[in-house]
Amino acid sequence: MEADRIPRHPDVRTITLQRVLEAIVDPVRRSIITQLCDASGDIACGGFDLPVSKSTATHHFRTLREAGLIRQYYAGTSRMNALRREEIDEVFPGLLDAVVAADRGPSRNGGSP
Amino acid sequence: MEADRIPRHPDVRTITLQRVLEAIVDPVRRSIITQLCDASGDIACGGFDLPVSKSTATHHFRTLREAGLIRQYYAGTSRMNALRREEIDEVFPGLLDAVVAADRGPSRNGGSP
After folding, report:
1. Which part of the chain is the HTH arsR-type domain (chains A, B) (predicted)?
2. What are the tens digits of pLDDT across the range B36-65?
């Protein structure tokens, strides 16, 4: 039905660490991942708190999707974004958790004995 | 004594996730980290298996050192490289392990149920 509106997603078996790292090295894209991790559900493209224009954000969403980190789908007219957490965790165990935790930086603030 | 030959290293408290990710997004630099993880001790600059020239490798070592990932020191005329594992683990728990494991890619090959 809406297949032509739904963008392609890479198979989890073709996701590479190189693409994942190239995706999350960008602070805006890392923020998208962190916000998805913190959210109780999926987030519409317009629902993120991002310091960039809508068109720039669209580019970042695409990069994340092509790297295999997020899955995009339509809910009515909204393009929704879902973290492919279980798939990523299966291929690269611990990576997402470590990056998101590091992005929050708790160990730096509370690391003193 | 040899203070002028020993390069500066960032304090662990100033190491940022951004710099760390910018360092390890490069496959050659990631290979240096992986080889240091696999080694039983520190490795001289000439002791790595790298697909780049000596001068390019020197640039990569510098980037890793400035990001806070490795510590360099002299042993005679050899410049040695040590992974700052404990310090990195303290600031960004699980990050190094996850990246090195992902770089080896075991989960992709053995992940089928």
Report:
1. 9-103
2. 999 999 999 999 999 999 999 999 999 999
**How close A55 comes to chain B (CA, Å)?**
23
Determine the Cα–Cα distance for residues B95 and B83; give it in Å rounded to an integer.
13
Question: DSSP label at A2?
Answer: -
Window 43-82 of A: residues touching B by CB (8 A cutoff) are none
What is the chain A residue with the closest CA to B18?
A25
Q: Positive or negative CA dihedral for A96, A16, B16, B2?
A: positive
| Cβ <8 Å between A25 and B27 | no
Instruction: Look at residue B107 in the predicted model and tell me its pLDDT.
Output: 60
* Smallest Cα distance from B58 to chain A, Å: 22
Domain boundaries, chain A: 2-101
- Domain made up of A2-101: CATH architecture: Orthogonal Bundle (1.10)
Using the Cβ of A107 and the Cβ atoms of chain B, whether some distance falls under 8 Å is answered with yes
Cβ atoms of A33 and A92 within 8 Å: the answer is no
Q: What's this model's pTM, rounded to 2 decimal places? A: 0.89
Residue B3 has pLDDT above 60, yes or no: no
A98 contacts A32 by C-beta, under 8 angstroms? no
